[in-house]
Amino acid sequence: MDLSAINPVLFVAGFLIAATPLIFAALGELVVEKSGVLNLGVEGMMIMGAICGFATAVETGSPLLGFAAAALGGALLSLLFAFLTQITLANQVASGLALTLFGLGFSALLGQSYVGIKPPRLAEVNFGPLHDIPVIGPILFSHDIILYLGFALVVAVWAMLKFTRAGLILRAVGESHDAAHALGYKVVRIRTLAIMFGGACAGLGGAYISLIRVPQWTEGMTAGVGWIALALVVFASWKPWRLLLGAYLFGGITQLQLNLQGAGVAIPVEYLAMSPYIITILVLVVLSADKSSAPASLGRTFHASS
Amino acid sequence: MKLSTLLASAALAIGLAGGAYADDKTKVGFVYVGPVGDGGWTYEHDQGRLAVEAEFGDKVETVYVENVAEGPDSERVMTQMALDGADLIFTTSFGYMDPTINVAAKFPNVKFEHATGYKRADNVSTYSARFYEGRAIQGHIAGKMTKSNIVGYIGSFPIPEVIRGINSAFIHAKKVNPDVEFKIIWAYTWFDPAKEADAANVLIEQGADVVLQHTDSTAPQAAAQEAGNVITFGQASDMGQYAPMPRVSSIIDDWAPYYVARTKAVMDGTWASTDTWDGIGAGMVGIGEITDAVPADVKAEALALKASIADGSYHPFTGPLKKQDGSDFLAEGETADDGTLAGMNFYVEGITGDIPN
């Protein structure tokens, strides 16, 4: 065992990066579910974002344009879901699963000529002297802009849901679409916007994997992050700050167990490998003892005539 | 009553027609653990499938299902293939072993071929390649080229196949560099690019300047390229897009001749349950081009090692060797038999850490 092999600064930087795709995808889904829609297509929208972002970044040479394209790609795919569930009133669970399958297949088709290419690198944000502070500098002030955007988005969504009129309307639609409709709010329009926001966020999360975390394009490369994001929303009781905590816990413990394995710590590897799932679930279950529950209209279809 | 009779006979007629149709084409199914575009393991199996199509043209029909989870779900996929009239089914991952045996028992007329496993039946063959021969060459190059004397190794699952590769690489790295140390991380996945890249990054952060992988995607190569000054080896496929650095060589699986021969055997009616385990000599394991990032003398030694393994004059597991716990494994000059290799569940002396159960 040689714990000195683990560099804590690199470890923290590593887990912030590992958690970011999860934060984006889960936060987007949180907003969607707050509006009363269950979209199981997160994985499909992420992988679409991963390829749209990758292809655009490679073609234009600009990673930021890549991320913009990833958000757009995710949002466009989610429009398909919005059309199916909001206009044709299809079953949300089935439509979401179909979206995932479609996204995985379509992204593989789009990505055929991008295998084995190295994407342009997104530069770190220049914080000037802050970057040179020992320990804190490399941990907090040496990342790309998208990572900070993820954090800012958590704050923004929390503030929006809690303090703004828009947030109140969104929650009203999610709790009782009939009441919201009776008050004159456009339920379908609001939900469609929420679904598109969720798609854009998932797309950003996917592109963060293909442009920053790996960085390359491989078919099916999101490999289940979308499903973890879905679970995280539930375990975080639909609360942005808990979601952030859960994502950091999950990313952190995943990263920690890899580090401990490398350092040869004498804990059986099987336990290390399952620890991220178990600890994240345990912590969030304990936190959610306050009986906060799902939006009341979650997963129910709405039609103005009913 | 009449209606049901009518329906039954119609169904029978359709069934017969379907059977007749299936008979003039040999239908070959493939079950893949990852996507065909993984650039590694599954990609090479799919190349084998395409070779079968190219060889027999419209006399065969091939089908494949990708991203099939190991375990019970694979049983469903195999059953569906068999019901759809497949004559021969290749199941291409270790974790399909028991499902293959189970499904094969239900379809005695369908031939099954399971890769890298050890359970056979009258209609189930096994086949694998001696990847550990290629690992010996990687170990040699790794031992010669590491400056930090730390070699990182990304394992997938602790099965004999992977453990054999670790041992073979370690023995040959140690032989040329007594100070070498292996850091092993088990990813518990065959294909998860993000996790594979994370594992590679952790190994590099902990001082490794050589990263070997036994997972299927090219993500560790991308991570090494990003880090710079780290060398890697292509796994299962050439991964030549990462040459000359970080990828300095590779193990390439060549399944095409085997798949063509087995399909031919089914067509001719000569198929029998066998156990095939071929290596560099037979061409099932290829060594990808060693790039100029490797010094010329090291390259020459590696090629000599390859030649001696290919012609059978050298076996990568040749004594004296001890097990990790210090007990004797092989005496001076003794080589490991295939039974020991197939069930290998221990590290050789010098590797630190325990094998997970």
UniProtKB/TrEMBL annotation, chain A:
UniProt GO molecular function: transmembrane transporter activity
Main subcellular location: membrane
Location within or outside the cell: Cell membrane
One cellular component (GO) term of this entry: plasma membrane
Keywords: Cell membrane, Membrane, Transmembrane, Transmembrane helix
Transmembrane segments: 6-25, 37-58, 64-84, 96-115, 135-161, 193-214, 220-238, 271-289
Keyword Transmembrane carried by entry: yes
CDD domains reported in the protein's UniProt record: TM_PBP1_transp_TpRbsC_like
Membrane topology: Multi-pass membrane protein
Entry superkingdom: Bacteria
Any single Pfam family the record assigns to this protein: BPD_transp_2
Name of the protein this chain belongs to: Nucleoside ABC transporter membrane protein
UniProt organism field: Sulfitobacter marinus
From TrEMBL, chain B:
One Pfam short name: Bmp
Residues spanning the signal sequence: 1-22
Database matches in InterPro entries: ABC-Purine-Binding (IPR052910), PnrA-like (IPR003760)
Domain ABC transporter substrate-binding protein PnrA-like: 25-306
Gene3D superfamilies, alphabetized: 3.40.50.2300
One term under GO cellular component: plasma membrane
Keywords of this entry: Signal
Name of protein: Nucleoside-binding protein
Organism, scientific name: Sulfitobacter marinus
